[in-house]
Amino acid sequence: MSPQLREFCPMDISELCVVALTWSLKDTLGEILDELDEPVEFLVGGADLLAKLEESLQGHQAGDRLELHLEPEEAFGDYDESLVFLEGRSLFPELLEEGMTFEGLPPGASGQDAPANTVFTVTEIYPEHVVLDGNHPLAGIALRISLKVEAVREATEEEIGAGTTGCGFFRVAN
User: Fold this and answer.
1) Alpha-carbon separation of residue 120 from 86, 91, 123, 174 (angstroms)
2) What are the distances in angstroms from CA 101 to CA 122, 139, 171?
3) Hey, what CATH topology would domain 81-133 get?
């Protein structure tokens, strides 16, 4: 197909293409958790999107809008109490703030049986202890997502090889 003709033929979303999306992400009570007005690109068939999102996007084209409801198990999983650790304050840097993240637990931590490569978020800081949570911030939350497909294009060999466009918003880290 000539480049001029391809320009006028809308491309359906399928495996190993790149979609540019905007969205509004809400909890089931309607509270806005995230809004994206500028399109972000995601690789369909790679590691960028949740399975339910990829499934729902199949066959759609630029300009299409989707309204989705995802239960926790379809989104970022159920909240897992076993991924919450209370560790000694002395194991952390002097400058420590709630919301900071660490890949893995620090050396000397009591929770050495924690899953490898887990990203932990500092959720509370006490004089002697720090609470770390390895759950995704949206774990345990059912989500309502209003998506708009802004553009669809073929993925590059580099994107296919990497399995990502580099954006991991909808990727589950664990």
Assistant:
1) 11, 14, 9, 10
2) 6, 16, 16
3) Thrombin, subunit H (2.40.10)
Q: Are 36 and 23 in contact (CB under 8 A)?
A: yes
Is the Cβ–Cβ distance between 12 and 59 less than 8 Å?
Answer: yes
H or E, element range at 92: none
User: What is residue 149's predicted lDDT score, i.e. its pLDDT?
Assistant: 97
Q: What pLDDT score was predicted for residue 5?
A: 38
Q: Which residue has the tokens 């369909």?
A: 44
Domain positions in the chain: 3-76+138-162, 81-133
As beta bridge partners, residue 19 has 42, 152
pLDDT at site 81: 94
Angstrom CA distances, 26 to 2, 16, 49, 124, 155, stand at: 42, 28, 17, 25, 29
Beta partners for residue 146, in sequence order: 24, 67
Amino acid at position 167, single letter: C
Report the C-alpha gap between 172 and 112 in whole angstroms: 21
Q: How far apart are CA 42 and CA 29, in angstroms?
A: 27
What is the per-residue pLDDT across 87-136, written as a single tens digit (0 to 9) for each? Answer: 999 999 999 999 999 998 888 888 777 887 899 999 999 999 999 999 99
The CATH number given to 3-76+138-162 is 3.10.50.40
